[in-house]
């Protein structure tokens, strides 16, 4: 399905054509080259699940998956992602059919205000995949399959800030999913 997204009305530059595959649907957009991926998703496509916390790469609220890898969408220009597959929180699960990480966050009470939660969950999905691939983190003692410790989970999620401090429950939720898939 190809959908047309309208550019922002306040754009001063002529738009550059970009095609994004977002949550399984193709979108063609004409974008000011200065528009970030986060703004293209939120303002251009109306996908407001990804949050703008700091807008400078420090909080992780804007985390999305691009071609399966997590990135801070506030730090990336949309025109850099022509042809890329983007997954936002809206593409992971539904209320009726939660993604396993979403279900674990609910089960472990891993959210309070919930503002950071979409980024936390997208980041957790990416982190779990990296863990399963055996990729080391900064706290891994050696190369090879990492140990499933809370320190590993905390380190891998350290780019995502939760000012409500739901961290113990977030770690428990991610651990449950990692253990279930191990
Ligand atoms: S909004 Fe992107 S890291 Fe904070
Ligand atoms: S649940 Fe409120 S900032 Fe994380």
From TrEMBL:
<protein>
    <submittedName>
        <fullName>2Fe-2S iron-sulfur cluster-binding protein</fullName>
    </submittedName>
</protein>
<dbReference type="InterPro" id="IPR012675">
    <property type="entry name" value="Beta-grasp_dom_sf"/>
</dbReference>
<dbReference type="InterPro" id="IPR006058">
    <property type="entry name" value="2Fe2S_fd_BS"/>
</dbReference>
<dbReference type="InterPro" id="IPR036884">
    <property type="entry name" value="2Fe-2S-bd_dom_sf"/>
</dbReference>
<dbReference type="InterPro" id="IPR002888">
    <property type="entry name" value="2Fe-2S-bd"/>
</dbReference>
<feature type="domain" description="2Fe-2S ferredoxin-type">
    <location>
        <begin position="16"/>
        <end position="92"/>
    </location>
</feature>
<dbReference type="InterPro" id="IPR036010">
    <property type="entry name" value="2Fe-2S_ferredoxin-like_sf"/>
</dbReference>
<dbReference type="Pfam" id="PF00111">
    <property type="entry name" value="Fer2"/>
</dbReference>
<dbReference type="InterPro" id="IPR001041">
    <property type="entry name" value="2Fe-2S_ferredoxin-type"/>
</dbReference>
<keyword id="KW-0479">Metal-binding</keyword>
<dbReference type="InterPro" id="IPR052914">
    <property type="entry name" value="Aldehyde_Oxdr_Iron-Sulfur"/>
</dbReference>
<dbReference type="Pfam" id="PF01799">
    <property type="entry name" value="Fer2_2"/>
</dbReference>
<keyword id="KW-0560">Oxidoreductase</keyword>
<keyword id="KW-0408">Iron</keyword>
